Amino acid sequence: MKSKHQEHARKDWDTYFMDIAYMVSTRSRCHRRHVGAVLVQGKKLLGTAYNGAPMGIEDCEEAGCMISEEYELVLNDQGAEQMVKKQRCIRTIHAEQNLLLFTDRIDREGSTVYVTDQPCWTCANMLANSGINEIVFHRPYLKDDQKVRHLMKQAGIIFRSLNMYEPPEHAAMDIKQ
Predict the structure, then answer these.
(1) Model-level pTM?
(2) Nearest Cα to Cα of residue 130 among 119, 117, 141, 138
(3) 85 SS3 class
(4) pLDDT of 113-148, one tens digit each?
(5) Within a 10 A sphere around the Cβ of 11, how many other Cβ atoms?
(6) Residues noted as catalytic
(7) pLDDT in tens, 37-86
(8) Do the strands 112-117 and 81-89 form a parallel or antiparallel pair, or are they unpaired?
(9) For the chain: N or C, fewer Cβ within 10 A?
(10) Quick one: 148 exposed, middle or buried, by C-beta within 10 A (0-12, 13-18, 19+)?
(11) Helix (H, G, I), strand (E, B) or coil at 68
(12) How far is residue 126's CA from residue 59's CA, in Å, rounded to a whole number?
């Protein structure tokens, strides 16, 4: 039997802020992926954002997805070159991009971004130039994983995954990689 202390134990800060990111992601109307991001300075929440169409513009639920297909030559696990097809929605502004649009650089200096999904290449580039010093994510985004990790290492940004994390019930959608 659990003691009263165990039943009411506080969540650690990573879990707390990732839970908030997942709850923020429930605002997304994207059929492919709900992503939420939060900006944290110390233990203070400074901003939240999710992925979606620009304000006042029909979203994918209303107007349909705008999918762009791209091909990229990557090295696979065996070191051989492999052509990878990527599909990206170009109607949607990513959660990380919205977070940067709606927060001030002065607040971002030395801060942490919690994001439900590993940033794509474009978002990683933007975050690397935003003043943050750490990115914490839960779900991997394998299409850009190697080059994003390399970029974060070059930029000196702490980049870590919460592998054992479990999102709040009903907040996480199933993602098809």
Answers:
(1) 0.85
(2) 119
(3) strand
(4) 999 999 999 999 999 999 999 999 999 998 889 999
(5) 10
(6) 96
(7) 999 999 999 999 999 988 888 887 787 777 778 887 777 778 888 887 87
(8) unpaired
(9) N
(10) buried
(11) strand
(12) 23
